[in-house]
Amino acid sequence: MPIDHFPIGSELDVSYPDFKVSLTLLSVEHLKFDIKEGPFARTETVDIEVASLGNGIFAVSWQESDGATVTNIQDFDRRVIHSFATLPDGQFLRMTGPFAFTAPAGHVTDARPQHNKALVLDAMTSLFQRHDTSAVQRLYSEDYVQHNPNIPQGRDALQRIVETLSKSVYYEPGLIIAEGDLVAIHGRIRGWADETQIVVDIFPVEGGKLAEHWDVLQNEVTAASGMAALSMFDPAESARR
Length: 241
Description:
Elements: E1 11-15, E2 20-25, E3 30-35, E4 42-54, E5 57-63, E6 69-75, E7 80-86, E8 92-103, H1 112-128, H2 134-139, E9 140-146, H3 155-163, E10 170-179, E11 182-190, E12 197-206, E13 209-219
Parallel strand pairs: 9-13
Antiparallel strand pairs: 1-2, 1-8, 2-3, 3-4, 4-5, 5-6, 6-7, 7-8, 10-11, 11-12, 12-13
């Protein structure tokens, strides 16, 4: 995510284990923090440096008037901040806390949809094009939930299926849509059943892995043999991702 997606104008309430702080992201050069209670209580506007780390994550660093230095890893996808501070007396603090928006930015910063679409595309092509069994452990959560009644439950069962897939099984990805942590992908699969099928797979993503799965399958009917003049699946639809 480029630096121009830094959510300027946002106000955040961050809950660290020992205290709370309010942050106002004034610009890519200035930030205001307000700690209302505790030994660190104070308000200050500081000069900052911002670096984009991708996927809605920014490194934000500054030095305070008393000499303390702070680096925040601000993860706007997961709504959490990892903070590393060196105090004037040399004490080093590592803190992690969730945050809530109290005032939104003027533009959307959520990079999850594009990141999650890439994750699902990787999973579907790894398993059902390349038959790569190692991708199951890499891309699916340990407590993976399966809603297809014809497939056994769990990640290990999915891996066993991939291990025994016929070489004739081949998946073609098409249109992918995503919102927040949900992804749906439209595709065509050959060799899974007696006839080529068109399938829509739906995945929630949790912690960077596929956590759950629903699917709807339908035998492919060609445009020439069906009532409609359009095909059920066109590989060119992938261009709309």
